[in-house]
Fold:
Amino acid sequence: MSVQNLNTFDPFADEGDPLADNANVGSTSDYIHIRIQQRNGRKTLTTLQGLPTEYDPKKLLKAFKKEFACNGTLVEDEKMGQVIQLQGDQRAKISTFLVENGMDRATIKVHGF
Amino acid sequence: MSEPLFDPSLKKKKKKAVAFTEDPLGADADPTAPAPDTIESTTINGEVVDLGPKTAHEMMKEEIGGDDAAKAKEEDDFKAMFGDVKKKKKKKEIPLDFGEDSGIATPVTVAEPGAEAPAGDDDFSDLKKKKKKKAKAAFDLEAFEKEINQSKAKSGGDDEDEDDVPVDTSHIDNIDEAELGDDPFAHTDAPSGVDAGNEAWLGSDRDYTYSELLTRFYNSLHAANPALLSSVSRKRYTIAPPQIFREGNKKSIFANVTEICKKMHRQPEHVIQFLFTELGTTGSVDGAGRLVIKGRFQQKSIENVLRRYLVEYVTCKTCKSPDTLLTKENRIFFVACESCGSRRSVNAIKSGFQAIVGKRSKIKA
Structure:
């Protein structure tokens, strides 16, 4: 019979570098940001920024456009890289689409009102 | 064998009238309650401590079994854990001489019907039998004594308290009523059953897992003082709803920013910066301290954004308290909780990609 209670555990044991495997902890670069912007009138723009490199933004844009029945474009930004820009408020649709296609909900951040 | 061991301690307990603050502890200390089993087995065998692998809990028991003057104190705690010291006290006031013993006997009975019969869980069936016997035999002292001895012999391991019973045969008359009053073990089953139900280890001789003991602790804790349960729903943190007016066609005015910032103990600049990045717009603060936001925004949407701000920068992640301080050190913001003392870094407010809205020719110019 093994006794749990007497198992020794060294609380000061070296745990190694907590950031070893993930250098950019605290940076927001690993999030997918979905934002909204108001245009004139009731019109809005939805932007998707921070797409992981394993996804092809062009194909994703095509899928978005087809799925959401909206127009959109791929914008090249110096800092943010390629950003998908869609017409209208597609935030909820984008996030559900991404989650359904195997993305982790925790990595998706929806901004705006 | 065990009687002499426990007697002195018991007497001490009488004099001391154990601190009541330890009562609540009794709940979580329950698992140690079935101690007598092992103690007595060892004492009966004449050996002190011979069981190979020991849990810490078993060791505790043995310590108590070992019983020095010093350990008498532990004993006290132990007893206190068993339940109603108060009741014991009351009994004490009866004749001191034999009151001691009667006092000993009664608390057992009292304590068990009380909160949850912590001690009895293991050998409850035995106890029951015994009690019934006692009740019957109460008048016939000798028979009673015999029976108890029998039952003791039969069920080797019992409560220490039980073993003290035979000593007090001379004044069972006193106990009598008490015992009869407490006799209804049927009741006691119910409360103890609640606890006993989830004690999966009772059937086997395996060790308890940490989670089991933890749930048991919380169960009994909440049973003992339900006031603790409501700690979650204490005073709710409220903030006045944002007042949003429309200025013209394209601007919204957030009238009570400063008020809300004050309530949250945050710099208005920080809150405003967050609002602007979240909403993806710009704006300014006018002379009256109101925030003018470009674009049309509903009160509800601003409220949502503020809520997100609260979660991100105000409430403590550890204790959910809104009583926090935001400080900046080396370009990194830290939130320090005033109520629990925890401290964590928070993301700086970073504006993301801003799509170009409006005429591009205007921007170029």
User: Anything to note?
Assistant: The helical segments of chain A are 57-68, 91-100. Chain A has one domain: 30-110. DSSP finds two helices and five strands in chain A.
